[in-house]
Task: structure prediction
Amino acid sequence: MLLCGSRRFNILAPTTALSLGTFIKHLATSKSSKLSLTTKPFTASASASIKGFSSSRFEALNSRQKEQVHLYIDSLLEWNQRMNLTAVKEESEVVERHVEDSLSIIEPIRTSYLSHCGPSSENLSLVDVGSGAGLPGVILAIACPGWKVTLLESINKRCSFLEHVVSQIGLSNVQVKRERAEKLGQDVSFRESFDVAVARAVAEMRILAEYCLPLVRTGGIFVAAKGHDPQEEVQRAERAIQLMGASILQICCVDSHSKHGQRTAIICLKGKPTPKKYPRDPGTPAKVPL
Result:
């Protein structure tokens, strides 16, 4: 069942005959639709303060993890003075806009993986595609130390920052991979090797599908962190997702403490191998989306 804001929708599993296009049409219909409606977003209730910001997810971390988050933020703001890593300049805003947003996708990842992919979500292999400043990958690695996290980034300066911050924090469960997603997706050492792929603020869904799904094993999931209203973007991506061997499993409205409002986690389940011709040559997915 898809839970989103004040609505509940039937999830499109890989074996469901209903097309994603039909699903999106239902998404916009009234209560007279065959789909029932209710309210139950992913959320948390407790709160804690970090320089004036209230964050229950941050509070759920242990003292060592909180210290690692602080070290990450300090490094991010320091390096941001020399290169463009983030538009935000204050610690509280980094927590509000980036850390909290990254932590919010952990519950959808765990829930979806346990329901459809495997008996445990404690030792996942995860790739953060287009990691940039390490969001969400570094935060996921801190919060879930049992996960093996690969930060995939193609820009050298950003990789230098990622390597620095991983060493500074002491994250033994993280590797930085300096490569384009299109090339890594054709590398036999990495192709279809990850349980989970995530992407945040990288590209639209039909491009992300070709970047991320070739890296996910059959039976794994791809999670895209998006804004509050991704319906049209998801509909445009239907063909690309299917070509990569996957289908929409769930679209979760994720409760956000940020002034930027509600966020959405789009979760795709990979049901069969990606055809060998995907991903296409570097640059092609962005220039000629499927």
